[in-house]
Design goal:
The relative contact order is 0.17. Mean pLDDT is 79; it is low at 257-286 and 292-305. With 305 residues, the protein is mainly alpha-helical. The protein contains 12 helices and no strands.
């Protein structure tokens, strides 16, 4: 999974987030715990490496310092990239709780974000005051950080405009402005070109390079799997691809017409999404990515059904 793929999959989760937010059934506890556990495992590894760097770099010889930085730089990239997902998905889970009048996804989402902010502070401190860190070394990292902050606010725009939750944004005013444009254009990607333009910009602006490898790639796959496993079955067609928001609402309304009490337990409602989650957690991630993105590209055509 490349850096761009990880971010694009988060973007798709944002685009189709009304499926999750408006669903009468919350994501299962198992799925939410899976998401939280992935973040906590990664954050412990990041914080340990970032906290160790100053002492290691100061005690090392000039010849040894480059290798220490090579082990540390991927951590900063992972922290900044994954924070985009923590903020965007955290806001979506929180909005869903507010709509349903429950408190299930928000506590775990905010706990994951708190750990992310701790790692972020260590990363920023290292960039500003880290021993034996040159401006050339951090310049590229800082450009990536700023770019990811802007993309975070963009992907949060429609959620913040509709539900508030400005504390998930880096710049609440900027995110609010993005949200106004998104909602004025319509919230169904089948009926608007704005998301098409966004994804084109994302595709051009984020390098298609392998994601950092400090934390095992399986953790990133698990994060994506847990996100898509939180979508209700009404969000998917039989082959696991995403429905338009409009069609998903029609399907959901038909299923829930008699009321949620007659439904089975949430855990039994996950297929066919469970199959997609299983694929993304295996070596077939590329296949899953291709299926989701090709479906997305087809529905961005104006006037598509």
């Amino acid at each position: 999974m490349t850096l761009r793929q990880f971010i694009e999959l988060t973007a798709l989760a944002s685009i189709y987030s009304p499926h999750v937010i408006e669903s009468p059934v919350s994501p299962s506890r198992e799925v939410l715990t899976r998401y939280w556990g992935c973040f906590k495992a990664a954050q412990r590894a990041w914080i340990g490496r970032l906290a160790a760097y100053p002492g290691e770099a100061s005690a090392a010889s000039p010849r040894e310092r480059p290798s220490i930085w090579e082990r540390t730089e991927p951590v900063l990239v992972e922290v900044f990239v994954t924070e985009l997902t923590a903020r965007v998905w955290g806001a979506i889970l929180t909005a869903g709780d507010r709509v349903r009048g429950v408190c299930e996804g928000e506590p775990l989402a905010r706990n994951a974000l708190i750990g992310q902010l701790e790692a972020r502070q260590l990363a920023l401190r290292l960039m500003v005051n880290g021993p034996h860190v040159s401006l050339d070394q951090i310049a590229t990292l800082d450009r990536l950080r700023r770019k990811l902050e802007r993309w975070t606010d963009l992907l949060l725009g429609h959620v913040i405009k509709r539900y508030g939750l400005t504390d998930f944004a880096f710049d609440a005013d900027r995110s609010h402005d993005f949200g106004e444009d998104q909602l004025q254009s319509g919230d169904d990607p089948q009926r608007t070109q704005i998301w098409d333009l966004y994804l084109l910009g994302l595709h051009a602006g984020i390098p298609d390079t392998p994601a950092p490898t400090f934390v095992a790639e399986s953790v990133r796959k698990e994060i994506i799997a847990s996100i898509f496993a939180a979508f209700p079955p009404t969000a998917f067609v039989d082959d696991g691809t995403l429905k338009s928001i409009r069609l998903g609402r029609i399907t959901r309304d038909a299923i829930f017409r008699e009321g949620p009490p007659e439904l089975a337990a949430p855990e039994t409602l996950l297929p066919p999404l469970a199959a997609a989650a299983k694929v993304v957690a295996t070596s077939e991630t590329e296949t899953f990515y291709s299926k989701v993105t090709s479906r997305a590209k087809s529905i961005y055509r104006p006037g598509a059904d």
